[in-house]
């Protein structure tokens, strides 16, 4: 997420008897609303901040700057800390609340945590849609951010625990797919509401987030808590009953015993975060953190948050800016589907490296076109160049959506060993939201100062991250989770040095338990 914390690991492991029961289907719908909500919040701010009425009401200085005659430079029209705070405050709140969410998911359960998220969302939406001053706007965004923090922790975890093992990997990317659908939905809504006469279209844009918010809240009241969570909180009989219900069979004893054992093992890890810092966990930690930082430094959210503003900057009319954002949103969704189909066939490295080339060149072309064609004080990019820019933005977005988008979440979730998986996942979510915040807060100012060079800046990062992937990210396609150490880390030219044999023997307990119990149970019960 992001995103959110997309916790479900894909991989082999024990297969227990399980049917796809109605309860599992309801869970998928829950994933949809949690992901949609996050995506909607990501996508809605850009369109709203490019609407004249909204700007006039809350950011009059920006509004006057966007009107001709008041310009310092085209690239600086929207450079305003308050405006950026409107977008970024959500991520700051999200990252802070992840820590509380990690506590409530463990102590109060997944169901209640999702309910808390839903309630935060509803209050956030009400404040935003009825805002009469900037304070209400920002507080509303902060409440939405709290919702994101709680939902992104609990929903994916809930899913990974409720889903039969064989569909876990798919569900992982499904969450990301819903994020992209949420973004597209927000872009479409903005396109429609911008046309509303009377200047209240932005209220509708912000208010329609209420739909997924209410769905999530009602959904969380309807579902049962996960067996893992019940067992973790000592409610063994209840946990067994729920397991029977969700698996649609009475033959649940082996899985139940494994869950009980998993919960016991998880409780033994007294300091999961300290554990994470041990030398032998370095490869996964470095990769998970780097993937999150790099994911944001591809520049994707410059597009997702600010596409309409960016297109406006280039001289597109309001309408053209908004429908260009719809086009990029649609490309994002379709390319995520491509990822679902190809990730286990082509592999993670192939997708990341191919996307690296595609993102590098598309950003280079954008920078060149803007550098030559958009002058500081003249507006309107010639039509054919404008189309070229939109095509290049789509080329960039599609590459991101089948690589760094989903894989930034999938790879950490499948590489951490059991003993650090939960803590690793929290760190992954936090680092992601932190850098999402940085981009949200800095992009418009960077655009003002770097001008077209901002795209060279991001393409430089794409180069660095591709080299990182080339040398340091091993292939994990089709490797069962419990065999990662042997088949992946111990075979890697650099990382094998960190999997210190002696230390491993000393701390053999954790590994043996992991091998014994595999991933048939809660991967992240200690979050
Ligand atoms: C990222 C988000 C981004 C989204 C775009 C996610 O993987 O974490 O920051 O907005 O992809 O589709």
From TrEMBL:
Belongs to the major facilitator superfamily. Phosphate:H(+) symporter (TC 2.A.1.9) family. One of its GO terms (cellular component) is membrane. It holds the Pfam family Sugar_tr. One of its GO terms (molecular function) is monosaccharide transmembrane transporter activity. Keywords: Membrane, Sugar transport, Symport, Transmembrane, Transmembrane helix, Transport. It is a multi-pass membrane protein. The chain crosses the membrane at residues 20-40, 82-100, 112-132, 138-159, 171-192, 204-224, 285-309, 321-343, 350-372, 384-405, 426-446, 452-473. It is found in: Membrane. This is Sugar transport protein. Its main location: membrane. It comes from the Eukaryota. InterPro entries: MFS_dom, MFS_STP/MST-like_plant, MFS_sugar_transport-like, MFS_trans_sf, STP/PLT_plant, Sugar/inositol_transpt, Sugar_transporter_CS. Residues 27-477 form the Major facilitator superfamily (MFS) profile domain.
């Amino acid at each position: 997420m992001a995103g959110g914390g997309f916790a479900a690991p894909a991989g082999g492991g024990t297969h227990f008897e399980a049917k796809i029961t109605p309860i599992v289907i309801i869970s998928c719908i829950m994933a949809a609303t949690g992901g949609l909500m996050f995506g909607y919040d990501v996508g809605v701010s850009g369109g709203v901040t490019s609407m004249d009425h909204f700007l006039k009401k809350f950011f009059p200085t920006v509004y006057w700057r966007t009107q001709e005659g008041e310009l310092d430079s085209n690239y600086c029209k929207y450079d305003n800390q308050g405006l950026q705070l409107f977008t970024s405050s959500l991520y700051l709140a999200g990252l802070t609340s992840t820590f509380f969410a990690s506590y409530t998911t463990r102590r109060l359960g997944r169901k209640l945590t999702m309910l808390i998220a839903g309630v935060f969302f509803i209050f956030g939406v009400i404040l935003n849609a009825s805002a009469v001053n900037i304070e209400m706007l920002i507080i509303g965004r902060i409440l939405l951010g709290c919702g994101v923090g709680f939902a992104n922790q609990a929903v994916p975890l809930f899913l990974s625990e409720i889903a039969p093992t064989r569909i876990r990997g798919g569900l992982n990317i499904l969450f990301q797919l819903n994020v992209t659908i949420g973004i597209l939905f927000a872009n479409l809504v903005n396109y429609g509401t911008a046309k509303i006469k009377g200047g209240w279209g932005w209220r509708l844009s912000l208010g329609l987030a209420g739909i997924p918010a209410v769905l999530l809240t009602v959904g969380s009241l309807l579902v049962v808590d996960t067996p893992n969570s019940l067992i973790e909180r000592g409610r063994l009989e209840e946990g067994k009953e729920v397991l029977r219900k969700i698996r649609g069979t009475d033959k649940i004893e082996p899985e139940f015993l494994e869950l009980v054992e998993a919960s016991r093992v998880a409780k033994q890890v007294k300091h999961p975060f300290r554990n994470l810092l041990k030398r032998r966990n370095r490869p996964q930690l470095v990769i998970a953190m780097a993937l999150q930082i790099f994911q944001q430094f591809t520049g994707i959210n410059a597009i997702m948050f600010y596409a309409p503003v960016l297109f406006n900057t280039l001289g597109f009319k309001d309408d053209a800016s908004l429908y260009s954002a719809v086009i990029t949103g649609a490309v994002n969704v379709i390319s995520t589907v491509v990822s679902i189909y190809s990730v286990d066939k082509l592999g993670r490295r192939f997708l990341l490296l191919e996307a690296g080339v595609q993102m590098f060149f598309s950003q280079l072309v954008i920078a060149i076109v803007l550098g030559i064609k958009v002058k500081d004080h003249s507006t309107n990019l010639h039509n054919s160049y404008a189309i070229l820019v939109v095509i290049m933005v789509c080329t960039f977005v599609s590459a991101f959506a089948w690589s760094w988008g989903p894989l930034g979440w999938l790879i950490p979730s499948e590489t951490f060993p059991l003993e650090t998986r939960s803590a690793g996942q929290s760190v992954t979510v936090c680092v992601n939201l932190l850098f999402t915040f940085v981009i949200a807060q800095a992009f418009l100012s960077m655009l003002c100062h770097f001008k077209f060079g901002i795209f060279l800046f991001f393409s430089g990062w794409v180069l660095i991250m591709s080299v990182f992937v080339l040398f340091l990210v091993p292939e994990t396609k089709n490797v069962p989770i419990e065999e990662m150490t042997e088949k992946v880390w111990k075979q890697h030219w650099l990382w094998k040095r960190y999997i210190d044999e002696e230390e491993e023997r000393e701390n053999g307990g954790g590994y043996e338990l992991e091998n014994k119990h595999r991933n048939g149970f809660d991967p992240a019960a200690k979050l």
